Amino acid sequence: MAKTNRRSKIGLTIEPSAGNGLLDRRIFLKRAIATLSAAGVGAIAMRSAGAAEQTNLEPWTQLPGEGFREYGTPAKYESKVTRTLIRSQPGTTGSGASRTPLEGLDGMITPNGLHFERHHSGVPDIDPAKHRLLIHGMVKRPLVFTIDALMRYPMVSFIYFLECSGNSQLMYGPTPPALTCGQTHGLVSCSDWTGVPLRILLEEAGADPGAQWILAEGADAAGMSRSIPMAKAMDDTILAMYQNGERLRAENGYPVRLFLPGYEGNMSVKWLRRIKVTPTPTMTKDETSRYTDLQANGKSLMFTYPMEVKSLITKPSPGQALRGPGFYEVSGIAWSGNGSIKKVEVSADGGKTWAEAMLSDPVLLRALTRFRIPWKWDGGAAILKSRATDTTGEVQPTREKLVGEHGTNVIFHYNAIQAWSIESNGEVKNVYA
Amino acid sequence: MCMHSLIPICIVSVMLGCASPATKETPNLGRLATTEEIIAWDVSIPPDGTGLPPGSGTPAQGVTVYAQKCLACHGEKGAGQPNDRLVGGHGSLASNSPVRTIGSYWPYATTVFDYVRRAMPYMQSKSLTDEEVYSVTAYLLYLNGIIGEHDVMNAQTLPKVTMPNRDNFILAYPARPK
User: Fold this and answer.
1) Which of A32, A53, A175, B9 gives 20 to 30 Å between its CA and that of A163?
2) Which residues 89-128 of B are in CB contact (within 8 Å) with A?
3) Does A64 contact chain B (CB < 8 Å)?
4) Which residues contact A66 (CB under 8 A, 6 or more apart)?
5) Cβ neighbours of residue A29 under 8 Å, at least 6 residues apart?
6) What are the b/e assignments for A405-419, b being 16+ CB within 10 Å?
């Protein structure tokens, strides 16, 4: 694309970085922000905030405010930012999923109350004083741990994403779902997880070095269980006790859950009650009849563990209509179960031209990474896309490529490039483009 | 499971230094589990059937269990509705409307026993006796045309059942196929 300086409607001279109004990601950084504000970006705010509004004496400027609370809640004006598309199996209230409202959040961390949920038989009400973890099987010393005991172990903290392998599954369908970003893609969240490295406990139990697998089992009514390669168990797997600084929420596995960084969410078994060291995979229901990936030829991939490189534009996204031409920040999240995010490119012309977005620090291994790029919408039709590349060099595929390789019956591991169509009235729609 | 040679294990143990915890600084706050505890706790059944309990069941015995405990959610003869269909779908996996059931999709019969015993019936899991689990497993395998009407399912016979879709799974670990 030939790069030319264009005089924008708001009086700025900004180098476009790709077609259809994408601007250089650095324009708001450091000294550039002062220059540009002076040049007129600030005028947008000035224009929308009239003088009369500035001088009103609203009640909160004169009356003492509310007192303290033991446990805070979001501002009441944000009460619509809730988990979304809560669906359960017929006749059940807790066998299904709820999704993170990705479009209502920014940064990289998901608030605990908005972390997505996937349960196979509801949320158990576990008394931590009665909960026990058994480690047995191919070990020298089968051991039972109380929660009090586990709390005394050395812990590590990491920020990791967790994604259900069934996330975005509606995108395999013949027509794009007319839903919000979170409703379509909200089975992904990111938290600061703190817990005990599983390796320490396996070593204490004297796990047989020849054993290649473990089985992890939950204390929920479904006894949710998965086989996990010993190599992963001894590498970065933790028994998570804390999430974003507080003890796990019940729906996220209280009092203790397994956490396998980068792997499909189902393997991070919640309400962990048993680990069995085994010679082979146990072939549980959730690694055979579920969470296997049916291909177009009728064969199925089994043990597809890492969640592949993926990104989404969360702003703007369906349900967030643009209010007239002018400046917008395009922002979203990117992640990879195989590494960290190396770059995210954004297109405003349906993928003809791409500009590199700014990655917000910190850019961490197997964590959500926030990307941003300024965009000046000219009011015409546009198609926004984001394309992530991870540190292994994997590039997020197009939907055409993904479906071409795997078919549409897969259900799991959908990671294709998402296209949002901006209509000339400002509406944002999910499209296959 | 007893096939591992002791010699390489010993060598690896020495090399990795993961011998007794006493030689290494570690919290050691677990207590030894008793054999009785482990037996009661361990409900997982791998494909070779290790851990399958005594007892047995036939399709005919399973009809009664199914009618009482399963039919309300899984329909007449496993036809599904309001919840998952358990029977049929054979030959549908490569079509545009694949039907994944125990018969068409599940690779191991032992998984049926394991899952029913731990997770079903949904409103009162872990309430079936081992005999009932064998029986209803036998009934579901029979409805799917996998075992005969008079076949008995027990710790010896269940692991020997060959599921129709068994060979259609491709392992993506440790390496994803091209």
Assistant:
1) A175
2) 93-94, 96, 98, 100, 102, 105-108, 110-111, 114-115, 118-119, 122, 125-126
3) no
4) none
5) A358
6) ebbebbbbbbbbbbb
Contact A352, A300 (CB under 8 A): no
CB A134 within 8 A of CB B33: yes
Residue A218 included in any domain = yes
Classified as helix, coil or strand, B24 is: coil
At A120 the pLDDT is 97
Cα gap A316→A430, rounded to integer Å: 11
Please report residues of B whose CB lies closer than 8 A to that of A206: 18, 20-21
Same domain, A262 and A349: no
Contact yes or no for A303 and B173 at CB 8 A? yes
Is residue B102 assigned to a domain? yes
Say how far apart CA A116 and CA A244 lie, in whole Å: 14
- Of the candidates A291, A328, A323, the one whose C-alpha atom is nearest the C-alpha of residue A307 is A291
Task: Determine contact: A298 vs chain B, CB below 8 A.
Answer: yes
Q: Which residue in B21, B30, B43 is closest to A145 by CB distance?
A: B30
The reply to whether residue B98 touches residue A121, judged by beta carbons under 8 angstroms, is no
**Encoding tokens for residue A298?**
């009728």
**In-domain check, residue B143:** yes
Residues A207 and A138: beta-carbon distance below 8 Å: yes
Chain A residues whose CB is inside 8 A of the B167 CB are: none
Distance, in Å, from the CA atom of A334 to the CA atom of A198, rounded to the nearest integer, reads 28
pLDDT for residue B21 is more than 90:
no
Domain that holds residue A202: 112-282
Residue-range definition of the domain harbouring residue B130? 56-166
The complex scores an ipTM of 0.90
> How does pLDDT run across A95-113, given as a tens digit for each residue?
999 999 999 999 999 999 9
Residues in chain B: 178
- Is residue A151 less than 8 Å (CB to CB) from chain B? no
Give chain A's domain count: 2
pTM for the model: 0.91
* Rounded Cα distance, B90 and B99, in Å: 8
Of B165, B167, B170, nearest to B100 (Cα)?
B165
A277, A317: one domain: no
Which has more confidence, A431 or A47? A431
Q: Which CATH number is A354's domain given? A: 2.60.40.650
Last-in-domain residue among A282, A299, A325? A282
The pair of three-digit structure tokens given for residue A284, joined into one six-digit string? 């549980």
Q: Output Rg (C-alpha) for chain B, integer angstroms.
A: 21
What are the tokens at A94?
A: 């807790």
A121 to chain B: closest CA residue: B122
For residue A132, is it within any domain? yes
Is the peptide bond prior to B82 cis by the omega test (within 30 degrees of 0)? yes
Instruction: CATH number of the domain at A240, please.
Output: 3.90.420.10
Using CA of residue B148, residue B150, residue B155, residue B156, what is the dihedral sign?
negative
Interatomic CA distance for residues B89 and B163, integer angstroms: 13
